[in-house]
Amino acid sequence: MSGNDAQRPARRVVVRAPAKVNLHLEVLRQRPDGYHDIETVFQAVSLFDTVTVTLRATGDDPAAQRLRLRVDPVDAAPDGVDNICWQAVRLFGHATGRHGELEIDLHKEIPAGAGLGGGSADAAAVLVALNRLHDTRLDAKELEQLGEQLGSDVPFFIRGGTQVGRGRGTRLTPLTGIRSGVFLLVKPPLSIETARIYGQLKIGLTVRGPKCNLRHIKALIARFPSSSWFGFNRLEEVVLPAHPVLQRLVLRLRELAPIAMLTGSGAAVVGVFEEQIWTAQIRDEFEAPDWFIRVVGPHPAGVEITEE
Predict the structure, then answer these.
(1) Is the dihedral of CA 218, 224, 225, 228 positive or negative?
(2) Of 37, 49, 122, 153, which residue is the catalytic one?
(3) Per the residue annotation, which of 20, 37, 108, 122 is the catalytic one?
(4) What is the CATH number of the domain that holds 155?
(5) Which residues fall within 8 angstroms of residue 177, CB to CB, at 6 or more apart?
(6) What is the DSSP letter of 189?
(7) What total of structural domains would you count in the chain?
(8) Is 33 among the residues known to form the active site?
(9) In this structure, are residues 56 and 100 in contact, taking their beta carbons and an 8 Å threshold?
(10) Residue 40's domain spans which residues?
C-alpha cells in the first residue's frame, strides 16, 4: 500500500439491493457440472437490503485487503467469511488487482432462505460499490461475468427489472418491464436449502422444452397480472409435498390471486393481485406469529447507488 493511497480520505457509497421473485421457473436438465439448466422469469420487487461500503485505504497488494462486516439485524446473515459479501470482495480484488481496507454495513430487509435472492443481491451491490470506489470502470457485462462466479442469480441483480434467465439463470434476455400488480410476499418461519431441492427433483431422461416465447410473454405482460399468465414453478413438485404449510399457502393464494407460486426454491410464496381487487384484508388473512409478510410492487432496476 503506498503512502499516498493510505492518506486519502475514506470514501463511501450506499447501494440499494432489491429482492426478486420468479414468475416462472422450469428446470430443463441437469448439466455435467452439477448445476441445472433452467428457464425462468425474474422480476425485481420493491423490498430492499441496504449495503454501505466504505473504502478507507487502497493498495495493489492482496495483503492490504482488510474487511469489517457488520450485519443489522445481527442474526439476519453471517458476519464472517461465510457471507457472500466477503466472497464478492475477494473476487473483485483478484479480478482487478485493487484491494483496500473496507467496511461493509449490511442492513437486511430481505429474509434468508426465502428464494428472494437477498444474498445474491447483496453480492451484486458489493461489486457495484467496489467498481465505483476503486474507479475500475467495469461495464455492466463485466460485472455480470464476475457475479456469475458468485451465484447464478447475481447477474440478474446487476440488471434488475424483468428478465428471462436461461442456462444456470445467468444468460439474461430483457423483457418489457412489468409495471403493474400488487405483490404479496409470505414466508412461514422455515428455511429451505436450494441445492437439496434440485437434488430431489425427478427430471427423468426426457429433456423438457422451453416455455418462454418472447412474443407471447410480451402480450401477457401488457395485461399483467391475469390468470392467463403462463408461468409455474417446477420446484413446487418437491417443496410443497414436503412442507404442507407451504402447500396450503399456495393453494389459498391461488383462490384469491390470478398468479400465485413458490419463488425460487422457497420458502417464500408470492401472490400477484390486480390493484383494483387488492385490499388490506387480504394481507390480514395471512398474518401469523413469526411469519414474514410484505406488500411490494415491481421494481424496474437492479442494484443502485443511492448515495456517495
Answers:
(1) negative
(2) 153
(3) 20
(4) 3.30.230.10
(5) 161, 162, 221, 298, 300
(6) S
(7) 1
(8) no
(9) yes
(10) 1-308
